[in-house]
Amino acid sequence: MKEDNVIVDKSKAFALKEASETEYWLELLVESDYIEKIHFNSMYFDCKEILKILMSITKTQNDIKRSETE
Length: 70
What we know:
It is a single chain. By secondary structure, the protein is mainly α. It has a single domain (2-69), classed as de novo design (two linked rop proteins), CATH 1.20.1440. 90% of the residues lie in helices and 0% in strands. It contains 2 helices and no strands. α1 packs antiparallel against α2 (37-69). 3% of the residues are buried.
């Protein structure tokens, strides 16, 4: 069970890192006029929503871990 949690934690951390990096690259692409603002807005909104979901999952899991150790 503990090994499964480690895999999930690593996967979650990787997903957060990749989503943050995607957000950064989208900002660079629109600032350099490589993509149009309308395309940026759609992709950026989706990226932000994914980040919110991943951060919520992380917070909930951390809260659960803390309550289990108390």
